[in-house]
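Hi L., both proteins are below.
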Amino acid sequence: MVDSISAIKYAKVNIIRDETGFPLSFKTEGDFPRYGNDDDRADEIAVWLLKTFMNMIRRHHTYRNSEPTTSILTITSNVVYGKYTSNMPDGRPGRCTASPGCQPVVWCREECLLASLNSVAKLPYEYALDGISNTQTISPSTLGHTQDEQVETRSRDGRLFRSRRTPPERERLWRRQADRRHGAPSRKKSTPTSRSASVVTPSSSST
């Protein structure tokens, strides 16, 4: 939605209609800023859209004078929403899966992941008190160019916890998770293998 408004504002959009005048597609000429690239021109449209929507909702009386809220997330509804949405001015083809949250779809992101996070951070939370979803897919190569560099990291009690799983161990873990999700019969348990882990604090180094 934000990119389509941006295309109308900054580029030239022509509507392609059928013989009855029904709009079928769009022909967009020129460049325009896209949401998710830390570009204020597009990000301000996202903020305006959220505020405008909520201000319109707040004008109406609510049951028991409750406070209306909204969320910027779709969970799995983005698949259905995209299936029944036609072509859009930003170049998005019809029946294409919509973004699963407030982050841009991957093919619209021109900058790095940090730029995408910066765009999302500009959305005012007080206008989306039900939550703002930011779903990101990161390939293993993003974590490092070699297997040694692709270390699983996460924050735990202010410290950096590193789990040294070898690629075969990670593959077995993913297979077990997939089996549980899809109801596959469980495999015979194998002899557990040892796994080393280290906790890294700012004052110490990994062992």
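That was the first. Here is the second:
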Amino acid sequence: MERLGGAQLAVTIIFSRQIGDLIMLATFECMNFFGRREDGHVNLPYKELTIERLVPIENPQARSESRPSVIATNGVTSILVSKEQIPDPADAIRSNWVEISALPNVSRLLSTLRDCGPGPINFGSGKPPEGMTHLENYCVMAVSDAITRVETGKELTDWSYASGERLLQAQANPRQLCTIVAPLVNFYVESIKSVSITDRLRIRSTTEDEIEQFGIKGSIIGYALTKVGGPSRFRPVRWVVETSFTDTPNDGTAAQHALRELDGVVTALRILGDQFFDYPVAAVTYQPYTHPSYGQANPRAPAFHHWSQLDGPFLLDASIIPSATRFVRTLLPIMMGVTNKEIKISVSKLRQASTRENDTDMVIDGIVALEAVLLRRHEKDRSFRLASRTALLIGDKPEERKRIYEFVSHLNVIRGDVLHGREEFAQRTTAGEVLSLSRRVVRQVVDDSTIRPLEALIIDLDRRIDDLSMNGIDPLGRVFASRRTVRRNIV
């Protein structure tokens, strides 16, 4: 995959900030072009937009039902819905494009972008208006959004720099014309920088707009909110996973592939820890190259109405970011490919497990995840093979290997009990224990997959089992030796 070198990255940052500065200058230039109305607002058409805001409650004792605009409250803060008039400058700018494009800063913005690369070929959003290029049309949308932000009192500088970076990417790398952003709920990275997985996939901190868009504010985090239809829990969103790609008109193939990549990153990261995090599908945002924001995020449902029993938060510590990135880069092609089916099944089971409604289902998912990577099809003596291979794969010390062997040996009993309606033992074995063990196994199997096939790993584990059975000092070796003696006497 392509990666930016240090010098190229520095040039990219400089150009994106230069473009961001030009967006701001062009914005105020356009506002001066249209002038002001008597009420002080810019002389442009306006449209009505539904706005959701978090506001303090003046009278906490008042019932939310008495305020039709309140859609949720925790007794201290409420989410209010209101209708507001916001400027809609895009069509007015297009109608006067001949004059506006000749304005000094608008002209500089266009020429600077043209110097950055050949620009895009295809657009998911269709053709630009007659007489305009795709690039000109996007500049119209960027300036239009910026004007709306100014008029509605929203932050402009950071937004302009982010837009400048996106415009630069679109010109220099046509693959990055569309963006999908998913909020990672209950997820934190101990870093001030974004974490790049590939040249198109990254994990980054949220912008102010996204925090507003995903319905999360510090004053409301952690409270149980009363909402029509039942209780709803809000969780913090501070990081997002983002993927960029080229979309073509009337074809969703690229977007579907990008969504699978995004989900693959989340799936891989969740293997790295026992705390639960995820992204709500309803909050995923798709932004085509000419996506208009109108200076206001699209209304979204609050993140997660249903929460896993395995609460977090999930923390990606700074010390493990490099190894975590390598792991995700290793697992992602496996999840996107057609080989290594055993690993894909195992990872998928762990992906599903944390969202199950009861511990028993989670335990069974964890057992299946183990079996998928450490057992062959139609293998005899499955309980022993699963327990012994697991112990030797992840056990570092003799006593730990013996504990793992005994624990996994009971999992086959659990499976049988569940199948026959006896869940007492399964309920005494916590889902957290089983899933944590399964994740350790899968992490090791994925790392090992870079040097040899899964079958080679199983053969090596079986050889080590035979060798250990000859070791009368090792605690697990004695178990293996006694087992061989019993089997030999039976024969």
